[in-house]
Amino acid sequence: MAAGGRVCALLWLALAAAGAALGKRSSVKVLSDGMWRELLQGEWMVEFYAPWCPACQNLQPEWEKFAEWGEDLEVNIAKVDVTEQPGLSGRFIITALPTIYHCKDGEFRRYQGARTKTDFINFISDQEWKSIEPVSSWFGPSSFLMSSMSALFQLSMWIRHCHGYLTENVGMPVWGSYAVFALATLFSGLILGLIMVFLADCICPSKRHRPPQYPHSRKLAPESAQLLKKLDEEQEADEEDISDDETESKEVSDRNSSPSAVRQRPVNTAATMDKS
What we know:
The protein is α/β, with parallel strands linked by helices. It contains 8 helices and 5 strands; from the N terminus they run H-E-E-H-H-E-H-E-E-H-H-H-H. It has helices spanning 2-23, 54-67, 70-73, 86-92, 117-125, 144-169, 174-203, 217-275; strands spanning 29-30, 43-49, 76-81, 99-104, 107-111. It has a 5-stranded mixed sheet, sandwiched between helices. Helix 4 packs antiparallel against helix 6 (144-169). The longest helix has 59 residues, at 217-275. The N and C termini lie far apart (197 Å).
């Protein structure tokens, strides 16, 4: 009886310990694409990992132990699964796994030190992060460039899911799925091209359809026509005056030339008479 009681007690203790281990809540926060703005406030240490990565699996125990010190250090400890959150992976341009970032009040620095609990604690408590140059605002997660990169990563993941659904659930061959995406790409490019042409025509209309830039030009048109008519009349009057002057000068020259001819004739006759 006593031996049986001891065995039952040991089993009960083992079950209680297992239940406590299972019921213990992890101090590591799990971030998603829609929660990234939380990183702009306070101090964070974020790990980017993938479940299939061996180095990430080796880091998990140390990261969990470090998270237990998060409340004392007043720092939030989080992790991001890049296979499930492509938007955050694109926003931070994750090219190696695991990757750790330190975030404080909107400034982001990449941690490149040793990956043990003690090193993580010293990095925060001794403020070793101050010796690291923060990421440029042009390439920061909140910049327009990185937001566009995040959208591109999300689009690629959506296309991957659609491809898997068409080939696995619908039963479409792989080449058929590629053909669908090719046609969708061509159609979307056509639509975007038409939209860009329409916007360009609205912003910079062609000369043929361009409206008059000076609406008051119509009011000035009759005045300008009258001015041109007046100038033409003055020019015609000047031409008439010139022609009159020319005729008068011609008549005067004719008058002057006729008496001289008359005077020359008697002189010539007198000379002939003397010779005779």
